[in-house]
Amino acid sequence: MSIAFLGLGNMGGPMAANLVKAGQKVTGYDPVSEARVTAAGHGVSVADSAVTAIAGADVVITMLPSGQHVLECYREIVPATEPGTLFLDCSTIEVADAHAAAGLAAARGHLALDAPVSGGVVGATAATLTFMAGGPSEAFIAAEPYLKNMGKKVVHCGETGAGQAAKICNNMILGVSMIAVSEAFVLGRRLGLTDQALFDVASTASGQCWALTTNCPVPGPVPGSPANREYAGGFASGLMLKDLHLAQAAARAEGVRTELGKHAEELYSEFVAQDGPGRDFSAIITSLTGDGTA
Ligand code: NAD
């Protein structure tokens, strides 16, 4: 089987490399020449356009920045394919865009799946991503072996759009819970608690959550969390903001009240405008302490 991989950036580059490591034949394309050079170094055959990359491909995987990129890409490449190609979009995009992309593929007789990921660049590199897939069972069964080459867990969430829905709902929980955990540390300090004391209680009590026990926003209690290295690496605040925007777009489209999700979107908008998009999203605590530090 021949795989075309479009979008060889921070995530797509290592994902394509893991497909090669698993013995797959991969042809990749990215408009950025550094991305093509790095991918070539990992055994990916690089093409000079998306249309060239997909020639003869049985599977087309996209890992692109936004829904607009995915739809533009599908409009360009789908007409150049023969019916029967499997389309897997691993980008994080709006649920409505996932439906539009799958519709473009289906109109040409292709199977398509939205399959966004969780696990970040670390997971993409180590092939330990979690995939959340949406689309027909036939597409999921065909896609599963490829997704398992790049991740450790693959969940079929339902029909088209269900993968994106799972991704944005999960990340809405994460954004809200990170703010809640950060507020609790700031209030706890003001009330005379040490960070360690609050952590020791909340991490084994009903306040327990991933934002506290794995990605703890204060340095100290969880030595591996980004707070211990000035919030470098991890899950960038700009990407959290993107996912909160996607959740709000979906909530508006469905007429669902998500007050905390909306407030989290506002707080991350303010934080990213002030601090930039690059630091780990747990750095939002620095906007709550009053002195800009953790
Ligand atoms: P990135 O910007 O590093 O990579 C995207 C790449 O797509 C870029 O190199 C860009 O040049 C390329 N591209 C744009 N249009 C293209 C086209 N038509 N054909 C081929 N390539 C094209 O972004 P990333 O961090 O790799 O993220 C990719 C997707 O994964 C996003 O949707 C993001 O939200 C999602 N995601 C990222 C992370 C993370 O931690 N970085 C985690 C989970 C999900």
Automatic annotation (TrEMBL):
InterPro entries reported for this sequence: 3-OH-isobutyrate_DH-rel_CS, 6-PGluconate_DH-like_C_sf, 6PGD_dom2, 6PGDH_NADP-bd, HIBADH, HIBADH-like_NADP-bd, HIBADH-related, NAD(P)-bd_dom_sf
Classification via PROSITE patterns: 3_HYDROXYISOBUT_DH (PS00895)
Sequence intervals crossing the membrane: none
SUPFAM superfamilies for the chain: 6-phosphogluconate dehydrogenase C-terminal domain-like (SSF48179), NAD(P)-binding Rossmann-fold domains (SSF51735)
GO BP field: L-valine catabolic process
GO terms of molecular function: 3-hydroxyisobutyrate dehydrogenase activity; NAD binding; NADP binding
Known catalytic reactions: 3-hydroxy-2-methylpropanoate + NAD(+) = 2-methyl-3-oxopropanoate + NADH + H(+)
NCBIfam families: HIBADH (TIGR01692)
Family: Belongs to the HIBADH-related family.
Annotated organism of origin: Prauserella marina
The keyword NAD belongs to this UniProt entry's keyword annotation: yes
Key words, A-Z: Branched-chain amino acid catabolism, NAD, Oxidoreductase
Pathway noted in the entry: Amino-acid degradation; L-valine degradation
EC number(s) stated in the UniProt entry for this protein: 1.1.1.31
Record-linked PANTHER family: 3-HYDROXYISOBUTYRATE DEHYDROGENASE, MITOCHONDRIAL (PTHR22981:SF7), 3-HYDROXYISOBUTYRATE DEHYDROGENASE-RELATED (PTHR22981)
Protein name according to UniProt: 3-hydroxyisobutyrate dehydrogenase
